[in-house]
Design goal:
The chain has 315 residues and is of the alpha/beta class. The chain folds into 2 domains: 192 residues, inorganic pyrophosphatase (n-terminal core); 116 residues, Diaminopimelate Epimerase, Chain A, domain 1 (Roll). 40% of the residues lie in helices and 20% in strands. Bound molecules: manganese (II) ion (MN).
Amino acid sequence: MIRELLQRLETEQENIYIQTHNFPDPDAVASAYGLQQLLKINGIKSRIIYDGVIQRTALSNMIKDFSIDIHQSGDYLLSKKDKIIIVDGCKRNKNVTDLIGEEIAVIDHHPGKEPEDVEFVDIYPEVGACASIITSYFIELNFRIPVNVATVLLTGLFRDTDCMTRGVCPMDVQAYTELFKTADNFKVNSIVLNNITLADLNYYTRVIRDLKTEGDIAFCYIKEECNQNLLGILGDFLLSLEEIRFTALFADNHNVINISFRNESVEINAAEVMKTIVSGIGSGGGHKQMAGGVIDSKVDFNPEAMFNKIITLIQ
Ligand SMILES: [Mn+2]
């Protein structure tokens, strides 16, 4: 796909934007940056955009450290003729705003329906990180991966696969092998290691205090504002407990309920459980081992009933 996409973009006169999903995580930003640099090698200019917010200090630091030029979509005046490439998300997903411009490509690793009205679609649902797909383009084109690009891509790969322990497939291993050669591995380790801040500890305290368990399922409703990315990190922490194999975390964010699932059991598909519980009251999806979602109005959320429903669905 990448050769055809490059060919198509080489003659493009309009602006080219690379759009991540609305709450960019390291994998989304790394994929966008990697693709931008790959296009640049071919003399193609592009801008990275997102709609929403960057939630984590570790990610803001990565963006600053590598001078990644990423902007909110509102910072640019988009036109209908502009071309948009969506990375780490898909057209019509709830977490990817439909911006002004023509979506000409989707590069993603989330399972879902392929959009029929997009010219270039490269979706690998079995791949652990979108960064691995971008790395595969460099390999296919026989391009040397610059140090900064390799470092950022490897950080994205490590984050999405929880250091190669989650949803890893041969393409991720090949990407790791390739990226390791040129990345600043000390820097990668430092970014991956420094993933939380002292302020986050308050949430750990709350989760530990209010955690409910039933067999190997852990459930917690955080009644205070807690962003989606941190919810995932808290889920990863709980999943590292020997007794727990599935975590369901909920947070009240201004009358909207954010949800994060983490799963280590082969028999359970977190994305399917998510779709079932938000059906009719919100939206959500993801992978077998991690899923995110939202309940649009707090009135549709009853913590106890929800916990019971999850138990019934899983056991
Ligand atoms: Mn991803």
